[in-house]
Amino acid sequence: MYQLKFLAQREHRCPRTDGDSVLPLLSVQEIHREIIMGNNLLSLKDFSKPQLQSLIVRAMRLKKEAQDGVVHRQLAGKTIALLFEKPSTRTRVSFEAAMYGLGGQVIFMPARETQLGRGEPLKDTARVLSRYVDGLVVRTFGQEVVEELARFSDIPVINALTDLHHPCQVLSDLMTVIEKKGAPEHLKIVWLGDGNNMANSWIEAAAVFGFPLTLACPEGYDPDAAILEHACNEEGAEITLVRDPVLAVEGADIVNVDVWASMGQEEEQEMRLEIFAPYQLNRELLARAGADALVLHCLPAHRGEEITDDVLESEQSVVFDQAENKMHMHKAILETCLTGGYEGV
Predict the structure, then answer these.
(1) How far is CA 73 from the centre of its chain?
(2) Containing structural domain, residue 196
(3) What global pTM score does this model have?
(4) Which residues are within 8 A (CB) of 330 and not within 5 positions of it... i.e. 6 or more apart?
(5) Which of 138, 112, 140, 117 is nearest to 126 (CA)?
(6) CA–CA separation, 332 vs 326, rounded Å?
(7) Is the residue at 161 inside a domain?
(8) Domain count, the chain
(9) Cα 182 to Cα 232: distance, rounded to the nearest angstrom
(10) Is residue 287 classed exposed, middle or buried when 0-12, 13-18 and 19+ CB atoms within 10 A define those classes?
(11) Could you tell me how far CA 26 lies from the centroid of its own chain?
């Protein structure tokens, strides 16, 4: 039985249960499409492997069609609202571009400029917006915010980021991994640094898809204990959590990093710089990974902190392909959630 006290040890590996391997995502004929109509996308654990695979395959198809000049109008006549409490560049623009690219419309709503900023209950906002728009994309602090909005909404609610989860980002990151390396079950995927919302969603992705995941985090900065325990004990995920970044990166195929202080943690910046310094992804550390290892970063990057400039700009870095794929993945998510799927895969 997995217990949290083991996390302080040098290494702990959760047992992996036997199960179906990850389907070959590029063989679309073998994908079993499952409708997600009416469902919210709040975290990855809420979906089956075939559902999430279908989203990735669909995002790849939409990307190829866009590159070929295909004009999409699947969401013509539909409108989404972007309700954002946190500032954003990539998430906002990629969702807006995705919706416009499918023929739909977008209303951007900074939360401070709505009645939420004056204390209106979330349940009232949810029920009103359900009568105005076809979907709600939320970027906020507490996971309880998106959950309450979903509870009282009659429209799909999509989690564009909370302090606990970042599901859309990790789906687009997996899309990038599959484009570059193939099915993740054959790869050593490493998370390096803070056990934040990205780490939590990577853990859930590993549990759903069935690939092994290694995380290296300083003591006291582990991923969410409940998410980790559920993935290991309930889903049989193969999760390895270590303190030593060199041990984690050894032989890695994918090395994933993020900022050391997320939004809302700015007052901890100086303390975190010292604690996380050994986890910086630099040339020396990257050399311990596989010779053709790829580097992911969801951006924005603090160059010279969690990642050095020469690594971010190296040929092993795919961060800008990763950023582009957010838009294509968001197209697949919006299309599927707002229309109940698509014709074929």
Answers:
(1) 26
(2) 4-17+167-322
(3) 0.89
(4) 94, 95, 98, 99, 168, 172
(5) 138
(6) 10
(7) yes
(8) 2
(9) 24
(10) exposed
(11) 20
